[in-house]
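On clarity, I found the account of how folds are encoded harder to follow than it need be. What matters is that the chain and its backbone geometry are given together, residue for residue. I therefore recommend that a typical entry be quoted early in the introduction. An entry of this sort, consisting of the sequence and the corresponding backbone structure tokens, reads as follows:
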Amino acid sequence: MYYTTVGEGRDILFLHGWGCDGSVFLPVANRLSGYRSILPDLNGFGKTPPPPCAWDVRNYAEETAEMLRGMGVNKTLVVAHSFGARVALALAALYPVEGMLLVAPAALKLFSFRRVCKVAVYKGKKLLKKLGFRVTLPKGSADYAACSPQMRPTFLRVVNGNVRPLLKKVSCPVVIINGRQDCETTVRHAKALKRRLKNCTLTLTEGGHFAFFAGPQSAAFAVRCFAEGIK
């Protein structure tokens, strides 16, 4: 797994979201003196090649833990965005994590009547197409459409996977930051995750899914406050 480090001091591991790479956190890491920021490109993103087969979140967590062991990191703080939060939660069940700051975490799959209807329509159209009818199948989500053919099976395993059984194994302090206007990982999702974690606080901010990255200085301040609050 490719990674870069910025600075020296206490370790903070940054885990990016789907479709991004470690460089998305560089503006934040560059403002964190006194810390060593570890910025990996998760498999299939940036400079790290795709996994050899369809991976789930646990596979990503195991690969990340192996990278940390290879670096000689005994314990670390974790800052994760979106899909990276899934990996972080799985990692905390496998590896000594001091604390986690989860930004717009895409961790839980909650019941959605709208999604159930969309799946039913898709399956119905797929059946009609097999029977010879001329129908147009939906293209799926933007993230799925942007995936390479090699990464699509992994995408499906990740989004359809269930991290809930791992949550009871997460004992470290967790802070969640979620935008009130986030349409991808909603406040409802953030509150549901908070309820399922033992030691978790939730902070709501203004903005959408990428609001955290809009102001690197304020983001770095938030990370520093989080790190200093966990000794």
